Amino acid sequence: MIDLYSVTGPSAALYYFTGKIPRRAPCATQDDSQEDIPQSQAFWGILSMALFGVALTVLMWSTLASCVVVLGHLPTLFVNGIALTVGGLLGLPWARDWRMPPLLAVVGSACMFAYHVVYFYALQLGDPVGVSLIHYLWPILIVLLSPVFTRDVRVSCRHLVPPAIGFAGAILACFASWGTASGSGAGSTTLGISHAGIAATCVAYALALLSAFAWAAYSLLGTRYRQVPSHSVGLFCLSAGLGCLALYFSRSSWPHVTMTDASVLMYMGLGPMGGAFYLWDFAMKRGDPRKTAVLSYAIPVLSTLFLSVYLHVPMSAMLWAGALLVTVSVAMASRSHTRPGD
């Protein structure tokens, strides 16, 4: 079993890509100056890499909404299938190392598939603001469920305050995003609560909650299998992508795809629906899941910001207020320098 907190620097990067750690050359002397880096320094080194990975992931995921707007004329299952398949192909060079327990392979692939299909279907079925708010419960669920998946992690009140503030910021950002899309006409065809009906709205909200649990469970599942290299996520992406394509082509044919569409699909596969998943898995396995969850609340704020720029819509005061709350929550989480077990 690899010591998770003793892998840092170039060794950590090598472990991320190959799952292997280079052996140290034996020391010629027993001089104390030749001792390894202290455990605490190694821990903070790997934690810094994990936080950098989740920050890059948040940035990529924040562009996903703009990509969805660009590809709004293409079927959702087709977009998900192509993007996830491209993301899965990123890990294909290391396919021989996709060795993992069968349960992990099945559950991981199922969660990846269910999350995308259920969440996007919920957005089509119900009110986008309500669906988004319920969906963004997943960072709080990660904090609450961390002790269930990780034995050496405990949750106290000080761990719940930052995600609560971040969720408040996400609420404002979601409403600002809805106003941005509505103001540009992008959301004019979306069904609201009054049009969808009570039954359809309840189903949409239930699906949104299911997607939140699916992503929280998927994110925390990796903490139980830290020895499995992060590039094994390619198996989950590839399985989910092929599943989406099989479901789509069982009912429809190949849609018309322009060069712009193909470029955006390729970016989605390499970025928010591909490379981001590898970095996210690395951050969840090597970092503190409680702190990682809080950082995720920057996604709706940055997503609305990118939408405003793309649609040429002025940013509202509600968005700035949401950004302020998310910044406060991230600052509070960053000050709680804890390692698993605290």
TrEMBL record:
<keyword id="KW-0812">Transmembrane</keyword>
<dbReference type="Pfam" id="PF00892">
    <property type="entry name" value="EamA"/>
</dbReference>
<keyword id="KW-0472">Membrane</keyword>
<feature type="transmembrane region" description="Helical">
    <location>
        <begin position="77"/>
        <end position="95"/>
    </location>
</feature>
<dbReference type="InterPro" id="IPR000620">
    <property type="entry name" value="EamA_dom"/>
</dbReference>
<feature type="transmembrane region" description="Helical">
    <location>
        <begin position="198"/>
        <end position="221"/>
    </location>
</feature>
<dbReference type="InterPro" id="IPR037185">
    <property type="entry name" value="EmrE-like"/>
</dbReference>
<keyword id="KW-1133">Transmembrane helix</keyword>
<comment type="similarity">
    <text>Belongs to the EamA transporter family.</text>
</comment>
<feature type="transmembrane region" description="Helical">
    <location>
        <begin position="43"/>
        <end position="71"/>
    </location>
</feature>
<feature type="transmembrane region" description="Helical">
    <location>
        <begin position="160"/>
        <end position="178"/>
    </location>
</feature>
<feature type="domain" description="EamA">
    <location>
        <begin position="204"/>
        <end position="334"/>
    </location>
</feature>
<dbReference type="GO" id="GO:0016020">
    <property type="term" value="C:membrane"/>
</dbReference>
<dbReference type="InterPro" id="IPR050638">
    <property type="entry name" value="AA-Vitamin_Transporters"/>
</dbReference>
<protein>
    <submittedName>
        <fullName>Permease of the drug/metabolite transporter (DMT) superfamily</fullName>
    </submittedName>
</protein>
<feature type="domain" description="EamA">
    <location>
        <begin position="50"/>
        <end position="172"/>
    </location>
</feature>
<feature type="transmembrane region" description="Helical">
    <location>
        <begin position="233"/>
        <end position="250"/>
    </location>
</feature>
<feature type="transmembrane region" description="Helical">
    <location>
        <begin position="129"/>
        <end position="148"/>
    </location>
</feature>
<feature type="transmembrane region" description="Helical">
    <location>
        <begin position="102"/>
        <end position="123"/>
    </location>
</feature>
<feature type="transmembrane region" description="Helical">
    <location>
        <begin position="317"/>
        <end position="334"/>
    </location>
</feature>
<feature type="transmembrane region" description="Helical">
    <location>
        <begin position="262"/>
        <end position="280"/>
    </location>
</feature>
<feature type="transmembrane region" description="Helical">
    <location>
        <begin position="292"/>
        <end position="311"/>
    </location>
</feature>
